[in-house]
Predict the structure.
Amino acid sequence: MNLHEHCPEKVVSAKDAVSEIKNGSRVFIGTGCGEPQHLIRTMVSLMTLQDIIVYQMLSSTFSEFIDDDSFLRRFSLKLFFISAYMRKAAFEGKIDYIPTYLSQIPHLFCNRRIGLDVALIQVSPPDRFGYCSLGVSVDITRAGMENAGLVIAQVNPQMPKTWGDSFVHVDEIDHFVLHEEPILEMIPGTKDPEVTQRIGHYVSQLVDDGATLQIGFGHLPNAILQYLEDKRHLGIHTQLITDGLLPLLRKKVITNKKKTHIPGKVVASLCMGSKELYDYVNDNPIFYFRSSEYVNDPQIIARNDHLISISSALEVDLTGQVCMDSVGYMFYSGIGDQVDFLRGSAMSKGGFSIIALPSTARDGEVSRIVPHLSEGAGVATTRGDVNFIVTEYGIAELQGKGIFQRVMELAQIAHPKFRKDLIEFAKQRHYIFKDQIPPSAEDLTFLEKYKHTLTLKNGKPVEIRPLYPSDEFASRNFFYSLQEETIYYRFFHKMRLFSHEVIQKQWAGVDYRKNMSIIGLVQNRDHKEIMAIGSYAVDDEDRAEVAFVVREDFQGMGIASYLLKVLEGMAKENHYKGFSATVLRDNAGMIRVFKKRYPNAKTFVEGGGDISIHMDFEDAADK
């Protein structure tokens, strides 16, 4: 459709269009990379405009004027999210931050809690039916223009045409300003590639094939996408599309075939990235754009089974409270979409949330896992909303766990140099036992190579990994689940108590070299539980004593034999040459496990009828 022919009276210059804005008006501006730069600059240059209140979610162009006193006298900026361009201005009190959930912003416009007089938006040229596209900025832009008395649209041929609920008919727009210019590009950089790689590694362990993902704002969630390239049939339901999704789309990692809500489509609300991304999104029917009140509605989000929310934070305290919009008293970003998606993922069948963050800030001088949130820090995400926290040192699972367990989980993934202080603070606040031993002050990421998955003959997977301090409660529950005979075979007496003191001694003696314990975990509904523990401990200079215990319903499935082989590999790396074991004479099953692996094992009958077995690694049945 030719606008000059269809509605020539609506086609005006930018100056004529913005001249209709009255002093004291409340003006909505399109979001982020979709903002109409030419209209913004023209409005600011019109010196007769006074006392204008501007509402915008992500702002960029206004950063060109924010240090100009005359601009600040004429314009008041109210932002729902503070972009990197506006962060300094926020610290200096030059803008007003409105903290609210992204899903609720359109309702604020609709019910006139935030009244709007004018909307400045950017659209693609109309098609032959008279429909323009909001392109890369549907989000809150549709609600903004629908609730404004005057709508001025910059028509830009470089604006991508996007599918979904992005179309606006020319009859809904009061003035058209024809102006072509490049769409804003925003490509977040990677601050620390090594930290990102390690966090990406842990996140990839939590993401299963067929999951539907939400990717939050920020450089880290975008950067860790590259570590999901070995996944299959991922889906996307997210507020924001970034360049990080491009490789996954092109390699068919993202197919959306397994999605249970709008299958086959990437559901999104906003696009921010490079021209390459905009070209890929342009007129691509795989993308289905909807407004923020739809995309971010927790009930809509929950229609996606296995919805995994991946976002970031500025700091997390030992109880699980999360701050993501301020650094102390200084507003830094915004609530955005995090809480919407955390709650939506919690309601999703098989869904959960991941908050990923580096363990430190300020070049390693400050811990992001903190005893308590900084003074003035806002709690965007409560203790009850948090599921997984991931740093470069591992994964903390908090859902359904008490303060004691949360402290241990979070201290374990904090930077090693801060762990002892975190534990001491927790003791002072009576969060944990007074005799609690802190996690190792060593970087234990080398333990990742000891993680295995054993698939049983019945098809059930068993996760094998080292025992961590945070496994104390799980270990306790495991031992109490065992039958009396199984306990007797493992400890040689009818042990009945597995208290904090007893269990703590078990993992406290583990140095992951000379002494090692590994566990087998199986899925039970929406959590994992221990079903086997294998350990070795130093016996003499070149030999370690080994022992196992397997829950009764998993005995006879080859689990002890597998754990023995895994422990042997670990022991060899730590310069042991063989194992020793003490076994009750009538524990035929365990004797058979040792003999099968080491046919030439030497046995000795000790006092009381126990059997001592000496096994040399060089005699293993399969080396």
User: Anything to note?
Assistant: The chain has a mean pLDDT of 93. The CA atoms of residues 534 and 613 lie 16 Å apart. Residues 193-428 form a domain with the Glutaconate Coenzyme A-transferase fold (CATH 3.40.1080.20). The chain has three domains: 3-178, 193-428, 446-619.
